[in-house]
Specification:
single chain, alpha/beta, Nitrilase/N-carbamoyl-D-aminoacid amidohydrolase, 2 domains, six-stranded mixed β-sheet, 16 helices, 46% helix, 14% strand, acyltransferase, cell membrane, lipoprotein, IPTL_CTERM, LNT_N
């Protein structure tokens, strides 16, 4: 049951504090410093740095900046921490333009500010680390949903690609990993911040009458629990191997340009690059340098010409696929009618040609389609680079290829829980992520996206194969280990032996239920805290 703490934190800025405590003038600068350093530490937890322990430490510092403040101050401190975190974490957006980068960060920071404002009264409740972690999950859910389809990038869980926290993904998906990290952070913060920690009765008896002993236990217990949260994952059962494998060829063909003009000006260069690398793979197989693949995967946008409408493109693809001799997954942008297009994962058979396909469902706003099109095109000339407007698909990406049914996921979609989950539920194994990071090559986007693939592998007990135009192409085992990967901006190819797993994890089976439970828990605690705060205020006015 949610109860109030025995010693709630005082509201910052109270008149008596300044008179009684000479150091009170340093409280606000200290809060600002804690928020900023916490945001910076949280950034350091994400790839390419990948210092994962900085995630709970960073969130703990942010909590320290918020603890004991009123909602208004908590909101702007939360905004500050988010800005320090997201500006470098989303620096890859600068390729599109600094204005877009700033607008995106400014918008996303609002979610952190709202969460911080809700958290301010929650710190007055017993067990507040639990309720705060629930609020954090609620915040990440909200910003994954709105505006214009949401932006689920840079969730705390995505800093935990291969860490002690990662196995929680198999129980409750990405939200449970975020919850576990944030809970550890709250417990660490509680050990430092709580002036008089309330001990469970059994520990109170152990402490006896010694207040010093009680204080030590009161601080040691939250630290022990914070360490126990990731340690518990070592006791979780791991799905076993099922004795079935498939050889997957991965092709990375590279592109001629950089930035927003990565595909270059000359038609079919990208297509020829990937067709040539596919033929090089076929030759390596004939020479005995690589094992024969059962299927081959090319990246998103591996053809820059629509093979349905262009005979030249169709012939180049057919020639390369016939040479390698196995079903090949081609990434193409294809025309839909006269004004629209689809980002498509297209199965190409060496004999029958183009066959089954999957159309990308989660589209990139301002990259694949233009929200509020008339207004945006009138204000920003750059928005015209989108060209034809993409339309989303409405079916999961289960595609039969040779001996397996792959789960096709396109680039940006790997960040969306529901899209990946429904593809696995439809029978996709292994998961195949076709991606085009050419515009963001050598930024922090490719390593961040690879960390997402690591979480998805553990979440669904599936191997993940990533084919990227410029990198990072990779193979991730079902336990989240990166077994092979390419360098960026170079042509490359390989054949990897991938386990085929069919056993579903708890996370795959229950879907979004853990996330909803955690969100409701956090929201309910915030509601109770606000209600009790109002009651307390009413009593104080009546007593006065």
């Amino acid at each position: 049951m949610v109860q109030e703490t025995t010693s709630p934190p005082p509201a910052a800025g109270h008149a008596s504090d300044g008179a009684a405590r000479p150091w009170a003038r340093w409280v606000l600068p200290g809060r600002v410093a804690a928020a900023a350093i916490g945001g910076l530490a949280l950034f350091a937890a994400f790839p390419p740095l990948g210092w994962w322990p900085c995630a709970p430490l960073g969130v703990a510092l942010v909590i320290g900046s918020l603890y004991g403040t009123r909602a208004r101050r908590a909101a702007w401190l939360g905004y500050l921490a988010a800005a320090v975190f997201l500006l470098p974490a989303l620096a890859w957006v600068r390729t599109i333009g600094d204005d877009v980068w700033f607008m995106l960060v400014a918008t996303e920071c609002l979610f952190y500010a709202a969460m911080a404002a809700l958290a301010a009264p929650v710190f007055r409740l017993r067990g507040w680390p639990l309720w705060f972690a629930g609020l954090w999950v609620l915040m990440e859910w909200a910003r994954s949903l709105v505006p214009i389809g949401g932006f689920p990038w840079a969730r705390v869980a995505f800093s935990q690609g291969e860490t002690p926290y990662t196995p929680y993904a198999a129980l409750g998906g990405v939200p449970l990993v975020s919850f576990a990290v944030t809970l550890s952070a709250g417990l660490l913060a509680q050990a430092v911040l709580t002036r008089r920690a309330a001990l469970p009765s059994v520990f109170s008896r152990l402490a006896g009458s010694s207040s010093a002993r009680a204080a030590v236990l009161g601080r040691a217990l939250p630290v022990a629990l914070a360490l126990l949260v990731p340690a518990l994952t070592f006791a979780l059962p791991r799905p076993g191997d099922e004795g079935r494998t498939v050889n997957v060829g991965i092709v990375q063909g590279n592109v001629p340009g950089r930035g927003m003009y990565a595909l270059g000006d000359e038609p079919a260069v990208v297509l020829r690059n990937h067709a040539g690398e596919t033929k090089r793979l076929a030759q390596a197989v004939r020479d005995g340098k690589l094992p024969k693949p059962d299927i081959v995967v090319l990246p998103e946008n591996s053809t820059d010409i629509d093979p349905y409408r262009d005979e030249y493109a169709r012939q180049i693809i057919q020639d390369a696929v016939s040479d390698v001799g196995v079903p090949t997954l081609v990434g193409a942008v294809v025309a839909i009618g006269s004004d629209e297009r689809a980002t498509r994962s297209l199965v190409w058979d060496p004999v029958t040609g183009a066959g089954d396909y999957y159309d990308k469902q989660d589209l990139v706003p301002f990259g694949e389609y233009t929200p509020f099109k008339d207004l945006v095109l009138a204000l920003w000339e750059r928005a015209s680079l989108v060209g034809r407007q993409s339309v989303p698909g409405d079916e999961p990406g289960d595609l039969k290829m040779g001996p397996v049914t792959v789960g096709a996921v396109n680039c940006y979609e790997v960040a969306y829980d529901g899209t990946v989950r429904e593809t696995v539920r439809a029978g996709g194994t292994p998961i195949v992520v076709q991606t085009n990071n050419a515009s963001y090559a050598e930024s922090n986007l490719p390593p961040q996206q690879l960390a997402m693939s690591q979480l998805r592998a553990v979440e669904h007990n599936r191997a993940v194969v990533t084919a990227a135009t410029t990198g990072i192409s990779a193979y991730v085992t079902p336990d989240g280990k990166v077994s092979w990967q390419t360098r960026e901006l170079v042509p490359d190819m390989n054949v990897v032996k991938v386990p085929v797993r069919t056993q579903e994890t708890i996370a795959t089976k229950v879907g979004g239920l853990p996330e909803w439970a955690l969100m409701v828990m956090g929201a309910a605690a915030a509601g109770v805290a606000v209600w009790r705060g109002r009651r307390r205020g009413d009593r104080m006015r009546n007593d006065g």
